[in-house]
C-alpha cells in the first residue's frame, strides 16, 4: 500500500473512530453520523481477527475505505482486509485521541522512575508474529495507557506492522516499525 493510499485509509479510519467516540456536537460539526453503540461493544469483545472481521463495526469501516484498498486480486483484498481488521481491533481500544503516539506515551515515566508500560510488555508487542498476538498485546498496552493514543498514528503503525509481517522484502533497520516504536518509547522523557 503506497503512502497516499495509506493516508486516505487512515483518514477514513479516523472518521470511523470518531463515529464511535466523538461527542454529538463534534460529530454534528464534522458531518459524521454517530455509529450504533453495538459496534464498539462488539469490537471490544472480539478476541481474534476473525471475530473483528465478522463484526458490523469492521464491516462499516471496510465499506467506507477506498476501492483501491477494497478491490483487486483475491490475495491483495484478503491481505488488506486482515490489515484493516487489525486497525479496527486496535482503534476500538483508544478512547482519547491524543497528539502523541502510543509508543511515546508508553515510555513516559509513571509513578516513580519506571515507564508506564514495562520494557518487557513493550518488547513483546514489538516481537508479535501474528495478528491475534498483535491485537492482544496492543490492547493490553492501550489499557495501561487508559485509552490514550494518536488514532491516526496507531492506524498507520498498525498498517506498517502488518505490511512488515506479510512482506518478503528485506527492510532497512531504521524504517522498521519496531525500531521506530523503540525510539519513541526510549526517548519519551
TrEMBL record:
Pfam families named among the record's database cross-references: CRISPR_Cse2 (PF09485)
Entry protein name: Type I-E CRISPR-associated protein Cse2/CasB
Organism this protein belongs to: Alteromonas mediterranea (strain DSM 17117 / CIP 110805 / LMG 28347 / Deep ecotype)
Amino acid at each position: 500500500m503506497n503512502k497516499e493510499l495509506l493516508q486516505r485509509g487512515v483518514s477514513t479510519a479516523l472518521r470511523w473512530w470518531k463515529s464511535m467516540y466523538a461527542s454529538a456536537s463534534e460529530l454534528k460539526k464534522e458531518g459524521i453520523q454517530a455509529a450504533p453503540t453495538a459496534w464498539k461493544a462488539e469490537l471490544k469483545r472480539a478476541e481474534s481477527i476473525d471475530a473483528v472481521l465478522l463484526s458490523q463495526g469492521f464491516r462499516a469501516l471496510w465499506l467506507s475505505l477506498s476501492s483501491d484498498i477494497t478491490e483487486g486480486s483475491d490475495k491483495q483484498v484478503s491481505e488488506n482486509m486482515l490489515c484493516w481488521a487489525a486497525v479496527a481491533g486496535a482503534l476500538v481500544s483508544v478512547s482519547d485521541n491524543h497528539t502523541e503516539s502510543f509508543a511515546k506515551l508508553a515510555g513516559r515515566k509513571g509513578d516513580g522512575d519506571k515507564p508506564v508500560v514495562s520494557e518487557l510488555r513493550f518488547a513483546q508487542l514489538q516481537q508479535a508474529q501474528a495478528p491475534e498476538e498483535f491485537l492482544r498485546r496492543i490492547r493490553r498496552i492501550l489499557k495501561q495507557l487508559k485509552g490514550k493514543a494518536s488514532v491516526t498514528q496507531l492506524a498507520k503503525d498498525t498498517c506498517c506492522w502488518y505490511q512488515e509481517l506479510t512482506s518478503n522484502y528485506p527492510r532497512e533497520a531504521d524504517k522498521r516499525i519496531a525500531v521506530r516504536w523503540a525510539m519513541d518509547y526510549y526517548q519519551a522523557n
